[in-house]
Amino acid sequence: MVIISVGNIHFGGTGKTPFVIFLSKILLDKRYSVAVILRGYKRSSKGMLTVEVGKDGWKKFGDEAYMIAKELKSAKVIVAEKREEAIRKLEETEDPPEIIILDDALTHPVKRDIDIVLFPYHNPIPLIRRASLKTLKNIDIALITTIDLDIKKIKYAAKLIKKANAKVTVGTVIGFHEGTNTISKKIEEAKT
């Protein structure tokens, strides 16, 4: 089982949830079995639950979890305050997923094989952030999210990210094919 964390150091706005859906679809297309675990921000329920589209609506699971489940019909989507518990329960199932994607687990002490962090190109390292720059020292892949093809701005963002972690692979969501190849290679490495 390969565990991938997708996170950010910003307070929202990096495209993390759409990226989790995008990455999951790529992995599902490659015939991996996938589970997505997230907290379920602002949900009305507690504990660990498998998200069921149509049943009780988004309020029970949180809007992001519900949206992910609607988009990923062949992946298991789980909300849980304690991600470690959800991972353990998935490992104990008869048919555990090959890949678990942790949505927003950058600052959580959860064992994972690959850390992906998203950065908006216009403000890659914010002054006010939800995680310290020390957190970036251990990430594997930094993705600059952008709708603007201003190469100077993208290069500047990459330079700032590399200051925090010189070994990180930096890519952009635009032209992401290189990034998906890197992720696929890291998944194969993690499986061995």
Structural category is: alpha/beta
**Overall strand count:** 8
What percentage of amino acids are in beta strands? 15-25%
Major beta sheet, specifics?
8 strands, mixed
Average pLDDT: 81
Instruction: Outline the low-pLDDT stretches.
Output: 175-179
**Global morphology:** globular
**Helix percentage:** 25-40%
* Rg, Å, rounded: 16 Å
How far is the N terminus from the C terminus? 10 Å
Molecular structure report:
Strand 7, helix 5 and strand 8 form a beta-alpha-beta unit. The protein contains six helices and eight strands, in the order βαββααβαβββαβα. It has an eight-stranded mixed sheet, sandwiched between helices. Helix content is 34%, strand content 20%. About 3% of the residues have low confidence. The termini are close together. The protein has 192 residues and is α/β, with parallel strands linked by helices.
What is this structure's SSE topology?
Elements: E1 2-8, H1 16-29, E2 34-38, E3 49-50, H2 57-61, H3 63-71, E4 76-79, H4 83-91, E5 99-103, E6 114-120, E7 141-145, H5 151-164, E8 169-172, H6 177-191
Parallel strand pairs: 1-5, 1-6, 2-4, 2-5, 6-7, 7-8
Antiparallel strand pairs: 3-4
